[in-house]
Design brief:
Blueprint (H helix, E strand, L loop, with lengths): L1 H18 L6 H12 L4 E8 L5 E7 L9 H5 L7 H7 L5 E4 H4 L8 H10 L3 E10 L2 E9 L5 H25 L1 H8 L2 H8 L7 H11 L4 H8 L3 H15 L4 H15 L4
Antiparallel strand pairs: 1-2, 1-5, 3-4, 4-5
Helix pairs in contact: 1-2, 7-8, 9-13, 10-12, 11-12
């Protein structure tokens, strides 16, 4: 019966998180729900980008700490010693990690652990990592005065799929312009503009399909036209672009793609 009541409370908490999607209260409500499911002493949500200082999106404290928030000291430069920040900078994959998964083998003997980590976070830390775009990450940190057990990691791993989906959806709702930019890759952008100043609309359509590896037969079926018509369009677009084959068309596209890349 106790387990049934816990599950009902978790479902209610999850509903509150979903209600906050796209709203300022989402991060705090997520930390509250996680604390229901997996008790911890302090929680933190941060956003990191390249070599910039992390941005704190939300903090959670169970009230066991009487000292002021350690965040100002952390953000002033101590974050550079954070093993999670270092691991994220090296390209940490999405997932849940214990401190031991990312920290050096003698981390608990370091000055950073003894003089900062222990008082600010505790004896142990779990983090959920989500990659948003190259160089951009979200991290939810859960700190505890006692070491997390294997069962705790299992619980977080169980929650990870829906947590990841909610975090990504919330980020997209709050940053639609970044989401759109992330969806359009340099290759897609180049395909969209390749030959646009020279070819007709139909020729552009066929050129893009050819570059994606479609045969004349496949293009004819997709566009509901005859193969002979496709061949006529291919001859015309080749002539306009100054090429004579599919391989030359691809080489020209790669050349244009290289010219479109930002110069260092």
């Amino acid at each position: 019966m106790h387990t049934l009541f816990e599950a009902a409370a978790h479902h209610q908490g999850l509903a509150k998180v979903v209600e906050q999607l796209g709203r300022p209260g989402f991060w705090q409500q997520t930390l509250v729900l996680l604390n229901q499911m997996l008790p911890f002493d302090n929680g933190l949500v941060i956003f990191t980008e390249h070599d910039q200082p992390p941005v704190v999106l939300a903090e959670f404290d169970r009230g066991l700490r009487s000292a002021p928030s350690p965040m100002p000291l952390y953000l002033s430069g101590l974050y550079l010693l954070d093993p999670f920040i270092q691991a994220m900078g090296e390209g940490l994959a999405d997932g849940v990690y214990r401190m031991e998964d990312v920290a050096p083998d003698e981390f608990r003997q370091s000055d950073y652990f003894r003089n900062y980590f222990r008082s600010a976070i505790g004896e142990d830390e779990l983090q959920l990592i989500l990659n948003l775009a190259p160089g951009q990450m979200l991290a939810i940190s859960l700190g505890a005065s006692q070491r997390f057990e294997t069962a705790h990691l299992g619980q977080m791993t169980l929650y990870t799929p829906w947590l990841m989906a909610l975090l990504r959806q919330h980020w997209r709702l709050q940053h639609p312009e970044q989401d759109q930019q992330a969806r359009v890759t340099p290759v897609e952008h180049a395909l969209e503009h390749f030959g646009s100043d020279t070819l007709s609309a139909r020729e552009l359509e066929i050129a893009r399909l050819v570059l994606r590896g479609n045969s004349s037969k496949a293009i004819a079926k997709r566009l509901a036209i005859s193969q002979e018509t496709v061949k006529v369009h291919r001859r015309n677009l080749y002539a306009k672009l100054g090429v004579s084959s599919q391989s030359e068309l691809f080489s020209l596209f790669l050349q244009r793609l290289g010219q479109a890349q930002p110069q260092e």
